[in-house]
Design brief:
Elements: H1 12-39, H2 44-91, H3 94-122
Length: 129
């Protein structure tokens, strides 16, 4: 009987470090192309083409990878926002709910009064006989 396959969850730090290392390796390869060009042994048009291809690949990879990271960060932010709202709700003073209800009642009364005045102003005036 074999042991179950278990993989530890990748941490956020490991993810960002991996992306950093990927870009660092791209940069090291680009520097190597520059050094090869300085040797003047290889045709520079080929080395320039390889540089462009590599920069294009790096840009495409970063675009895709950071898009995924952005989606994950937004999802995580929403998750923790929900938890934070729960914590704040637990800490809320019960009297705050009562005070908020009173304030809302006054606000609705004011809106009703304003609406009533507006309707009275729009009402056609009766002609006197």
């Amino acid at each position: 009987m074999s042991a179950p396959m278990w993989k530890p969850r990748t941490t956020k730090l490991q993810t960002y470090e991996a992306l950093y290392l990927l870009n660092r390796c791209f940069e090291a390869t680009l520097v190597s192309f520059e050094r090869l060009e300085q040797l003047r042994l290889f045709r520079s048009e080929y080395l320039n083409e390889y540089t462009v291809i590599l920069e294009h690949l790096r840009a495409r990879a970063n675009e895709e990878l950071t898009e995924t990271l952005c989606e994950n960060e937004l999802s995580e932010a929403a998750y923790f926002d929900q938890i934070l709202r729960g914590i704040e709700k637990e800490r809320q003073d019960p009297d705050d709910v009562f005070l908020a209800a009173q304030a809302r009642k006054r606000e609705l009364q004011k809106q009703a009064h304003t609406l009533k005045e507006t309707l009275l102003q729009q009402r056609p005036k009766r002609k006197k006989r």
